[in-house]
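We emphasize that the prediction below concerns an isolated chain of 314 residues; any contacts that depend on oligomerization or on bound cofactors are therefore not represented. The input was used exactly as deposited, without trimming of termini.
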Amino acid sequence: MATKNVYFYKATLKEVISNKEVTNNIKAIFLNIFSTYTTPINNGTFKSMTLHHSAEEISLDILIDDDNWCFARVGKKKDPAYNVIRDNATKDYKYVLTNAELAIKTLEVCTYFLINYKTGLVGFIIGNDAPSVSVLVNIVNEFDQNYMMCIDNILNPESATKLVVPGAMLSKVKYTFRTPSVEALIALGLNMEQVTALGLMDISEIQLLVKSEPHKYLSKQPNNIEELVNSVRRLPQKIKESFLLIGKTPNTSSKPYGFKEENLYYSIEIPNDKIIDGKKVKFTPDEVANDICEKLKLLYSRNVGELMCMANIE
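Result of the prediction step, given as a token string:
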């Protein structure tokens, strides 16, 4: 099981000449581009096209394209020289791609996104070394000169307020303060010998962790959590930004909630394998894609009201 962060963005389309917003026509514009520039792949099951971004070729595989959704995979070339295939028993290894294969094949690192055609909201999984969400503008900007597409962040001010709901649970509180004074260190229980020893080190900050006993939450009481959140919100900006509340809501897994603006995201769990006849079997890329698609749709459905509010979509 892997935890992935899904960041949400707002896609906007405008006519180049008039600067008129035409995001409501995103489905028709995408359909025209996909019909013209994609190639059938995997025996016609899916469609693919190549985008160009910052001198890199980006593969765009359209896996689902219906009246409401576009679900796709984006990938870019990864150097196979830094990857090998190893035999677990003998520890022998071989190259991922042979020299002959390198002439006709490419190793890619991929991630996935989901666009809702009716709202223009985009859910994008951030992946290490995978393409960034900025490549999506090239779907339109590279292939239709009549329109311009923009992808804007959806900022979530003071996400800690999300914990002030029935069913939320607070597990930890973290407070980070910079350049701690001798008095602060002594107040934490250190003696002068330890303070002096720490003073010889390059310390820039100290993190204070407040938690309950193992496997217990600090609080499940909405009123208590709300009181803590409101008390921190009244602090000066620099101080309250040093606080993190670790907890979960009824619709999300445990994650940190802060007191500063950040890009809006949610977390999902992606399984890596399944059990067949008592044996663990790895998911295929298509099975992983199907699972991700369903979870992105569910995430969107559960949070569409908040997303539209944060993105100023009426």
